[in-house]
Design brief:
Chain lengths: ~100, ~500
């Protein structure tokens, strides 16, 4: 199997998605199914083919670095699960 | 006169203008119809009060002569579009209760032109799905059901609520988004018209992001002309979307009846897959006959990398999704679950907030972007994507449009194709290639299956040539003369 239990745990840590012990085997099986299916892309000759990052051939536009359309603080905080004195609150990260 | 909810946008606009009926009357008719179709679970948020207020304003504007181009037209908006102060959750638990402090560019344009929001339409969670069964708010039932049997069918996805709304007369038109077929496939399943414009034609600003190099907004309507009228408003350059293209917006509703005489229509051999349903093949053949009889020059073409489109999509889209969905961390908005520390809080919030399909795609995306696998999977997929786009470019040196079926089957039962993610992914086999190449495509209802379910044909066009796509779509509409109605019509 290309994706073993350890790999699933590594990906779930990278993706910040907690998996319960009982889910790991199922997820490994499903991810393996998908990865085996996409393996067929390896048979395509892509020697000297540029990877496509955008379908539109435009140069990214530049603008002056001045703020516009600034939302107000109250609005921005209104959807947060926890705020205090105009800040977003998170669990303590520095002891 | 027909029931108000049977009118097309074009007809409703003329009726409003000539004072045959008022915007309030039209809006009330749609509200009743939306209420009557509640068991289909089309809307995740109804905005009837706002709609009635806006309709009063529309009537004033119609009276004073400063009506917008969609003045008084009741529309459904996919829950993926941010609407100021109104439920916008991408049908995910992680965003349940989210009320954005801003309006998406496309919906802003709709309201500026006088369109009226009836409600936010159900969809697959974060637009990931082909059956509208991954929504946190439950699945949508297709207004169509097979002859004789009381089976519940899916409306397709991910814009399933939008397509079902238009089909069941719970809205006159709807917005959808299409990343790999999410406008065209549900339109085919629900017997309505779905248009995915060229990538870059409509602003993505304020649309909750799934796969940014593919996502594109478009209309779902009952007629091709209505799709053109909606696109006239939805399209246009927006400096806030760096991939929006600064090209003038023509009047897409002009000359739709010009026919297809002399039009070069490509039939890609690779779309005739092994095990293709005979019904779909017959429909496609019928479409080819229509174009031949209409004076088009029908040509066989080859798109050699077609079979690689789906696997390419299922690397590129999850990779982009894993990056886009990193923002749901339980800090600035959305669901939070407490944890032992900050990292644990992120992991538990995301585990609780995302559904199974979303988790699967974020994990796959994370895997193909991770150290040691990036070149083998992600970079290779991007290279194959280039080859797929080159196939189309090559084909368009000989033809003007490409004709294919929209989906490999009619709508299926709720609960089917669930055992294996890949069997669900195969629904998008005919729509994904054009998405990867950023091309415009339309699905137009063209016939019924033996079970009496709608089937669509797809037209794919060259970049920014929505005109050819729409006139070909109009030609199919006229030839098919599709006048069947779903079994379930609200009101």
């Amino acid at each position: 199997m290309a994706i073993d239990k350890a790999t699933v745990l590594r990906i779930s840590r990278l993706a910040r998605i907690h998996l319960a012990e009982g889910e790991i085997d199922t997820v490994a099986k499903e991810l393996n199914g998908i990865i085996q299916w996409v393996e067929q892309l390896k048979e395509v000759d892509t020697e000297s083919i540029e990877p496509m990052t955008s379908v539109v051939e435009i140069e990214l536009p530049k603008r002056e670095d001045i703020p516009d359309d600034v939302a107000n603080q109250k609005e921005l905080l209104s959807n947060s699960p926890s705020t205090e004195d105009g800040f977003f609150v998170v669990p303590k990260v520095v002891e | 006169m027909n029931k108000l909810t049977d009118l097309t946008i074009a007809r409703a606009l003329s009726g409003l203008k000539s004072k045959e009926f008022s915007a309030i009357e039209l809006t009330k008719a749609y509200i009743s119809s939306a209420e009557a179709s509640r068991e289909l679970n089309i809307y995740v948020e109804e905005t009837f009060d706002i709609a009635l207020q806006r309709a009063t304003l529309s009537d004033k504007k119609l009276k004073s002569g400063d009506a917008g181009s969609l003045e008084g037209i009741p529309v459904a908006v996919k829950d993926l579009f941010c609407t100021r102060g109104i439920h916008s959750a991408a049908c995910s638990k992680v965003l349940n209760g989210f009320k954005p402090p801003y309006e998406s560019a496309v919906t802003e344009k709709l309201w500026d032109s006088g369109a009226i929001l009836i409600g936010k339409a159900n969809m697959d969670e974060f637009a990931m799905g082909s059956s509208n069964t991954t929504s946190y708010y439950g699945s949508v039932t297709n207004p169509w059901s097979p002859k004789g049997a009381g089976k519940k069918l899916v409306p397709g996805g991910s814009s399933g609520g939008s397509a079902a709304a238009v089909s069941a007369r719970a809205a006159l038109a709807a917005t959808g988004t299409d990343t790999g077929g999410s406008i065209r496939q549900p339109a085919s399943f629900c017997g309505v018209v779905g248009l995915k414009p060229t990538y870059g034609r409509c602003s993505r600003w304020g649309i909750i992001a799934f796969a940014s190099s593919l996502d594109q907004a478009g209309p779902i309507t009952r007629t091709v002309e209505d799709a053109a009228l909606m696109l006239n408003v939805m399209a246009g350059y927006d400096p806030k979307d760096s991939t929006s293209v600064n090209k003038p917006v023509p009047n897409y509703a002009l000359n739709l009846n010009q026919g297809v005489k002399g039009l070069r229509v490509g039939i890609p051999g690779e779309y005739q897959m092994d095990g293709m349903s005979p019904e779909i093949k017959q429909l496609w053949d019928k479409g080819i006959e229509w174009f031949k009889n209409g004076g088009a020059e029908v040509k066989d073409i080859s798109l050699p990398h077609t079979k690689y489109a789906l696997p390419t999509y299922y690397i590129v889209a999850p990779a982009e999704a894993s990056s886009n969905l990193a923002r749901y961390d339980g800090v600035r908005f959305g669901l939070r679950k407490s944890g032992d520390d900050l990292q644990d809080m992120y992991s538990k919030s995301r585990a609780e907030g995302f559904g199974e399909e979303v988790k699967r795609r974020v994990l796959i995306g994370t895997y193909v972007l991770s150290a040691g696998y990036y070149d083998a999977y992600y970079l290779q997929a991007q290279r194959v994507r280039t080859r797929i786009a080159e196939d189309f470019k090559q084909a368009f040196s000989n033809v003007d449009v490409i004709l294919t079926p929209t989906a490999p089957s009619a709508a299926f039962e709720v609960g089917a194709n669930m055992d294996d993610p890949i069997s669900m992914y195969l629904n998008d086999i005919f729509t994904v290639p054009a998405s990867l190449a950023g091309l415009p495509g339309i699905s137009v209802p063209a016939g019924l299956s033996s079970e009496g379910l709608p089937l669509g044909l797809q037209i794919i066009g060259e970049p920014f040539n929505e005109h050819n796509v729409l006139t070909s779509g109009k030609f199919i509409e006229t030839a098919a003369n599709f006048d069947s109605l779903p079994q379930y019509i609200g009101g």
